[in-house]
Amino acid sequence: MGPRGGTTAPLFAALLLAVASCGAVGVPPIRVTPAQVQAAAVGNAYEQARAALAARGNGGGIPVKAPAAAAAGTVRPSPPPPLKRPGTAAAAATTCTDALATAFCADKGQLGDRFYAAVAFSCTCAYRCVNGRGYAYICQDGLQFNNAIQACDWPYNMSWTDPWVSSATSSQLASLPSYVNIVCVAFMLPDASYSGGVTFEGTGLSFSSDAAVVKASIALLKKRNPATKVLISVGGATYPNWDELNATSVALFVKTFGFDGVDVDFEGTTTCTRAATGRMACTSDAPYTRAVQLLRKALPQPYLVTTAAWSIGAYGEGLWANSKPQGANTGMSLNMLRSAGSLLDYVLVMSYDAGDKTTTGYDPAEALQAYCHYVQPCSKVLMGVQVPPEAWGGAVITVPKAQALAAAVKAKGAGGLMLWALTKPGTPSAQQLAQAACNVLAMRNCTQPLLRAAAG
Ligand SMILES: *[C@@H]1O[C@H](CO)[C@@H](O)[C@H](O)[C@H]1NC(C)=O
Ligand SMILES: *[C@@H]1O[C@H](CO)[C@@H](O)[C@H](O)[C@H]1NC(C)=O
Ligand SMILES: *[C@@H]1O[C@H](CO)[C@@H](O)[C@H](O)[C@H]1NC(C)=O
Fold first, then answer.
1. Ligand 1 center from residue 120 Cα (angstroms)
2. pTM of this prediction?
3. In what residue span(s) does the Chitin-binding type-2 domain sit (predicted)?
4. Ligand 3 binding pocket includes 94 (Cβ within 6 Å)
C-alpha cells in the first residue's frame, strides 16, 4: 500500500450506519474519558437532547400522545403517537404539507399504508402514504421519524440512518463510489439470535429499508465495484454484550446477506492498568481476544475479520508508555493484538473522540506509529476521521488535517483511512473528508459523489 507497494490499491473504509440523520446533528456515545481532562469535554448532543426532553416532563422514553384530531372536513387515517397533523396547536409547522406528501406518495401505490420520514425536513416531518394519497404528520418534542420502527424516535437513534428506498438501484449503499472499498454496515448485536432468512430479526439492526432491499443492495454494490468489501460491524457503543457473543448467528447473517466478513467493534467497558512488568492489562483483554478468535473461527479466510480499535489502545508501553491522553482505555488493544492480531485482516483505528494536541495532547500521527508497531504489516492499519462534531474531547477535523493524516498514512505504508460515518451530517462533510483522503491516497475517480441524493 502507499508509496512502497505501488501495485495494491489503497484502502478506504467507511461506516454506513443503519441505526444511530436524517439531517440532525447526532453523536455517538463517549469513547474515551481520561479523568484529568474531562473538564475539556464538549457536551454530548445526545445527552443534551435527552436532557431537554426530560426537562419538558418526558421521562426518557418515546412520549405517548393522543392521536391528532382530524382536520376539518376530511376523514384522516389515525396516526401512531406522537405524531401530529400540521396545523394542530402542538404542531404549528406549515411547511410539511399534504401536497408534498401526496407528490412523494405518487409512486408508492402498491406499498399499502406506510409512513416515510421526510429527509428534506430532517425527519421531523413524515409522509403517510395510503394507496397513493399522502398525508403529512409532524413529530413532537424534538423527535424525528424513524422508518424502521414506524414511529417518532430520539434524534440520536435517527442521526445517521440511511434513507428508506424501495429497491437496490436507488439505494445509497449500492451507489457508493469505488474509493470506499471497505463498507461497514452498523451495528449488529454480539448476542444475536438471528437464525436465518432475509430478515433483520434477532440482529439488532434497524435499517429503514426492507431486509430484501438491503441484501440486494449489497449484491449490487459488489457487482458495480468488484473490489469493494462489505462488512457487518458487530457491537459498537450501543451493543456491549460480548459475554454472550453468538458467532454462529453472526456468521449465518454474514453468509445469508452476502457480506465479506465482520468488523469487531468491541466497546464494552474496560479498565486498563500497568503491571509491575510494564505491561498493560485490561479487564477487556479476555473477552476482546475471545471475540476475535470466535468470529475468525466461524468465518475463516477469505472472509475478512477486522476490528475498530480505540484511539489510545496501542499506548501504555515502551515508547508510548506516557503518550497522551491517558485513560481507562490506554492499551486496550495490546493484549488482544498479541494473542489474536494475526487473525485480523485490518485494524480500523477510531482516531477521534480523544481531543487534540492542544487540549488533551492526542496526536493521530503518534497513534499511527504505535499501532504500526504492534500490527504487522502496517498496511493492515487504517486511521479513522470523524465527521464533526466528535462525541468527546472537542477536536474538530478539518480538510487540511485529514490530508495531513492521509499523508502520514501514506508515508508510513499504512493501509488507508476510515471515515465515521458515511451518513453523518457535519462540516466538513463526509464527502469532503472522503474526497480529501481519496486524493491524497492517490485512488481513482475521487470526484464521484459519496452518497447519492436522498429521496423524499
Ligand atoms: C433510542 O435510543 C435510546 C437510548 O439509547 C434507547 O433507550 C431507545 O430504546 C432507542 N429507541 C429505539 C427505537 O431503538
Ligand atoms: C445462536 O444463534 C443460533 C441461530 O443461528 C441459535 O440457534 C442458537 O440458539 C444461539 N445460541 C445461543 C447460545 O443463544
Ligand atoms: C473510474 O471511472 C471510469 C469512468 O466512469 C470507469 O471506467 C473506471 O472503471 C473507474 N475506475 C474505478 C477504479 O472505479
1. 23
2. 0.81
3. 102-162
4. no
